[in-house]
Amino acid sequence: MQSFFSRTRLGHLPTVVGLLVAIFSTAFAQAPAPAPLQTPNPHYVSIPLEISVSRPAAEVWKRVGKYCDIEEWLQVPCVITSGKDGEFGAVRSLRNGAVIEILVAKTAMSYTYTQPVREGQRYNLYHGTVEAVPVSATTSKLVNTLVFDNSMLADDAAREKDIQQRTAQFTRALNNMKTLAEGGTLPPSAARGPGR
C-alpha cells in the first residue's frame, strides 16, 4: 500500500521531469550566431623593435618611461587630457589631438597603450608597448612593440609601405630614447629636417 508521501511524490513526477527537460533543453539550446566582425579578414601585424642601452633599466625607465615622455623622444606635443601620467586609463593627446592614446596596461618598467575608434574609420586594433628590460646590472634594452591590423590598406604594397614607415618612425624614437637615457641631448626637431 502506498503512503500519502509516496503518492504525492509520484504524482508530481511527470511535472518534475517536464520541468527538468525544459531547463536542460533551454540551457543547451544553440546560442544565436554572433554578429559579424567589422573586419572579417584582418591582417594583423606586429613590429617588435629593440635597442641596447648602456644604463641600468631602472635609470632608463626613470628618464624616458613616463607616459608623456613621448613628447621629448618622439618629438610631438603631448598633453594628458584625462587621468594622471602613468596611471591606468590615462589619456594622452599627441599632435594637438590628431592622435589619442589610452594607457591600458603597465608594469614597473613598461606600459601598453591603445588608440580609440574614430568616427568613420575602421578600427585597426592598434596597440603599442614600451618597455625597459634589464640585461645586466649596468645595461638594459628598450623594447617598443606595435600590433595592429592593416587589412584596410589597398594592397600588399601599401601594407609594406605602412610597416616600413612605422618601423622607421619608432626606430628613430628608440634611438632618441637611448640618447636621452645615456645622458645625451637631442637636437630641436626643426633642425632634424622634414619627415624626421
Describe the 3D structure.
This protein is α+β, with helices and mostly antiparallel strands and 196 residues long. The protein has four helices and seven strands, in the order H-E-H-H-E-E-E-E-E-E-H. It has helices at residues 4-27, 57-64, 70-73, 156-181, and strands at residues 44-53, 78-82, 91-94, 99-107, 110-114, 127-134, 140-149. A seven-stranded antiparallel sheet has the order 1-7-6-5-4-3-2. Helix 2 (57-64) packs across helix 4. The protein is elongated. The chain starts with a helix and ends in a 15-residue tail after the last helix.
Secondary structure: elements and pairs:
Blueprint: H1 4-27, E1 44-53, H2 57-64, H3 70-73, E2 78-82, E3 91-94, E4 99-107, E5 110-114, E6 127-134, E7 140-149, H4 156-181
Antiparallel strand pairs: 1-7, 2-3, 3-4, 4-5, 5-6, 6-7
Helix pairs in contact: 2-4
